[in-house]
């Protein structure tokens, strides 16, 4: 956990009234982030905008009631394919790399988010870099008693109050 918390930094850059760029920098790891079984490990961005009354008015990357990530979540990982452009979960069936969004040593990745609604006075915008060792979605498909939820580690966080 301590290594994860010292591996990256996260920054917010406001680009317009409704757009924010979230930058994740690999500042403390001696390898790409994440490392190891990068098709299984999940490192993702959670972005929330809370109004002055404490209501979430915008969110992305927030797990659902089954602890699974929404499809539009920004995830840093490797996706392997079957040779025909289809993703595979079983790495033994992999014949190609469909995408590799890991962050190399000393580099950064940025993602632009369109906040809807636009932040108003008193709103709090939070971006967090989160990690868990495996997608909950896979565990939820296993037969028998449900496993998890898996622990989620906050690697880095930043916020801005409007």
Offer a few descriptive terms.
single chain, 162 residues, mainly beta, five-stranded antiparallel sheet, 40% strand
Task: Please write out the topology.
Blueprint: H1 2-5, E1 8-14, E2 19-26, E3 42-50, E4 56-60, E5 75-76, E6 78-81, E7 96-100, E8 108-114, E9 124-132, H2 136-140, E10 153-161
Antiparallel strand pairs: 1-2, 2-8, 3-4, 3-5, 3-9, 6-7, 9-10
Care to describe what's here?
It contains two helices and ten strands; from the N terminus they run αβββββββββαβ. The protein is mostly beta strands and about 160 residues long. The strands form three sheets. Strands 3, 4, 5, 9 and 10 form a five-stranded antiparallel β-sheet that branches. The chain has a three-stranded antiparallel β-sheet with strand order 1-2-8, with no helix packed on it. Strand 3 and strand 4 (about 55-60) form a beta hairpin. The longest helix has 5 residues, at about 135-140. The radius of gyration is 17 Å and the shape is globular. The protein starts with a helix and ends with a strand.
């Amino acid at each position: 956990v301590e290594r994860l918390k010292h591996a990256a930094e996260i920054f917010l850059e406001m680009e317009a009234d409704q757009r924010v760029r979230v930058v994740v920098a690999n500042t403390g790891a001696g390898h790409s982030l994440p490392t190891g079984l990068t098709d299984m490990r999940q490192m993702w961005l959670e972005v929330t905008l809370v109004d002055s009354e404490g209501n979430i008015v915008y969110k992305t990357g927030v797990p659902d009631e089954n602890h699974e990530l929404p499809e539009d979540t920004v995830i840093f990982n490797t996706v392997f394919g079957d040779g025909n452009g289809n993703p595979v979960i079983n790495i033994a069936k992999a014949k190609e790399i469909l995408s590799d969004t890991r962050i190399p040593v000393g580099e950064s990745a940025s993602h632009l988010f369109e906040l809807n609604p636009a932040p108003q006075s008193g709103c709090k915008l939070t971006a967090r870099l989160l990690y868990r060792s495996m997608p909950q979605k896979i565990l939820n498909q296993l037969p028998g008693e449900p496993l998890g939820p898996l622990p989620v580690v906050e690697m880095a966080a930043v916020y801005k109050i409007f």
